[in-house]
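User: My collaborator sent over this chain with a note saying "see what the structure looks like." That's all I know about it. Can you take a look?
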Amino acid sequence: MTHDPVHLDQPVGTPTSEPQNVLAAISWTLLVTVMLGGYALLRLLSTGDNLTEHEEQFFRAGHGHAGVLAAVGILYSSYLGRTLLAARRQIGAWCVYLAGALMLSGGMFVHMTVGEAGEGSWGTTVTAFGGVVLTVAVLYLAWHLYRARHVSFISPGSGTRLEGVPHE
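Assistant: Without extra context I'll predict from the sequence alone. Here is the result:
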């Protein structure tokens, strides 16, 4: 079997690593952008550019959540490969996860710029909605991992079972 860059219409139950590799590569790249955000915060704090306490608090919160969610995005893409989802559905699920992560952390940055200390803003609304979207994405993955609990996945080309994948 030859492997094209991405088998979007691959049958359910046929393992492939291509969607996970592409999604993980994007996740790793997003992690680099979070590192650059940390550098930006460090420069703001060390050069004396004045951030209000409110701005600094929400910059740190948005940055911290973005970092954790970027790292979890790498895991999310990996675990999608342990489900019976077709490649298109794996990509869709990861995109929903990404949207939720961007809304959750991005809403904090929005609140940093347009919100007031001690009050809500549309940034806090975006953050809350992002949390709901992330919850749906994580529960979707968990459900499909549960559904695949009795399936052994074979590493393409090697004939060996992937470690850590539940099987009977």
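A starting point for your reply to your collaborator: Residues 35 and 67 are 8 Å apart (CA to CA).
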